[in-house]
Amino acid sequence: MAKRAKKSKTVLRLPDLDYSKSAVLNSLPSLNSRRSYEHAISDFIEWYCSEPRLAFNKTVVTRYRIALEQRRYAPSTINLRLAAVRRLAYEASDCGLLSPDLAAGIRRVKGAKRIGVRLGNWLSAEQSKRLIAAPSGQRLQDVRNRALLAMLVGCGLRRAEIVTVKIEDFELREEHWILADLIGKGGHMRTVPVPTWVKATVDAWIACAELRNGTLFRAIGKTGKVYGGGFTAKVIWSIVRKTATDCGLGTIAPHDLRRTCARLCHQAGGELEQIQFLLGHVSVQTTERYLGCKQRLRNAVNDRIGLEPESP
């Protein structure tokens, strides 16, 4: 007599979810993706297990999306969380914990729509100069931070990319310094031109720190000596935020400097395709968003519409 096929579960318990979560994270090659998905899946598991009798299906994932919207998360954040949950469902299905039909239903849960354009944060050329010059001292830390800020603004690198740059990555091609074969987000490879003024700040840091090879940016101990083989991307966030605050620019994130690089390149007459190559974007639409919205805030269209009080 033939055995009955084992029936898949509909209510997944914590051990099942943890097993599927591990399978998802192990399938992701990028460290950044693993970090983002781990946070997203952990958030969903916490929500899901708060009501243990919930079935893992399309209706429940839709309820989760509504819960995220009630928290007033940005559409991009909601869609990242839903992408992680969809992947969790497929791994559970592959492991025999969830039926393929339920996993397919979860895949059909629609994401949040982005309506309008969010106001980004860009620095002008003068503000960028002020930021880079803010670590004005001659301490080793000041020299390092100037070089770090110069590379963020001048080369448009991501935090995760700049912590991997090595001294030997700099090459001279066609009489111009470059970072050759830089591996960026999603494993995409690109070549990044390095302006002469940026290379000069980097050379100053290398000379002061007496570095010969290996990771370019490293930690500095209390005694003022360089140690270790580099630092994490979180350190870059702290350096940028503190420097921007100290020079009166408010809250600035490292990615704002990447956007600033794109806009300054465009204002200087740079071609959209070349800016796309510089930043390593797969889609030119992403590059267009980095250039900023076309709405003017200075000399805005509603500044002079005839309703202004007459000047005395």
Helix content: 40-55%
Q: Report how far the terminal alpha carbons are from each other.
A: 100 Å
Percent range for β-strand residues? 5-15%
Number of helices: 13
Number of self-contained structural domains: 2
Mean pLDDT: 86
Query: What's the architecture of the largest domain, going by CATH?
Result: Orthogonal Bundle
Radius of gyration, in Å, reads 24 Å
Shape: globular
Biggest sheet: strands, sense, closure? 3 strands, antiparallel
What does this entry look like structurally?
The chain has a 3-stranded antiparallel β-sheet with strand order 1-2-3. A two-stranded antiparallel ribbon has the order 4-5. The chain is globular. With 312 residues, the chain is mostly helical. It is built from 13 helices and 5 strands. It has 2 domains: 94 residues, Orthogonal Bundle (DNA polymerase, domain 1), CATH 1.10.150; 166 residues, hpI Integrase, Chain A (Orthogonal Bundle), CATH 1.10.443.10. 51% of the residues lie in helices and 7% in strands. The chain starts with 13 loop residues before the first helix and ends in a 22-residue tail after the last helix.
